[in-house]
TrEMBL record:
Protein name: ECF RNA polymerase sigma factor EcfG
CDD domains linked: Sigma70_r4
GO molecular function: DNA binding; sigma factor activity
Domain RNA polymerase sigma-70 region: 11-74
Gene that this polypeptide is encoded by: ecfG
């Protein structure tokens, strides 16, 4: 026989699902978060104070589960479904050889760039810093970051033989 706690948790499942969807924006993950929330709530039901409201308590559990998921995913890395990924190329494929040669050409071209352009290119394109973060890091104006980055990209493209002229 279901008790009041169980009935109240079940009644709040749609609200939990909506909250989970607002956090993760994926139906499958939202379902997982709701399930984790229900499991944790039932395990900790003896710690729930019936004088308080159940919904905020469950929302807090769900939010903590979401944070746990984010932390776990950040350390786990990218997850790829083996059945949905394309078959890998053979180890010594022509495509991999071309990629390796292009990467080496880009590395050599980057070494030839002036130091100010190379620094900006590295911070923005390799480290992923924003223009504002790069400007603050190098103590230069943001417009200078953009112009140095543009010149660096053009020089790299010319050096590795990439035609950057869209009219051709």
């Amino acid at each position: 026989m279901p008790d009041k706690f169980t009935e109240d948790v079940v009644a709040l499942l749609p609200a939990l699902k909506r909250f989970a969807l607002s956090l993760c924006r994926r139906g499958d993950l939202a379902d997982d978060l709701v399930q984790i929330t229900a499991e944790r709530a039932f395990r900790a039901r003896d710690r729930f104070d019936p004088a308080t409201q159940l919904q905020p308590w469950l929302f807090r559990i769900l939010r903590n589960a979401w944070i746990d998921t984010l932390r776990r995913d950040a350390t786990r890395g990218e997850v790829v479904d083996i059945h949905e990924s394309p078959q890998p190329d053979p180890l010594d494929s022509a495509a991999q050889t071309d990629d390796r040669l292009t990467l080496n050409a880009v590395r050599r071209a980057m070494e030839e760039l002036p130091n100010d352009q190379r620094q900006v290119l590295h911070l923005v394109c390799i480290e992923g810093l924003s223009y504002a973060e790069t400007a603050a890091t190098l103590d230069i104006p943001q417009g200078t970051v953009m112009s140095r980055l543009s010149r660096a990209r053009l020089a790299l493209a010319k050096s590795v033989g990439i035609d950057r002229d869209p009219s051709r």
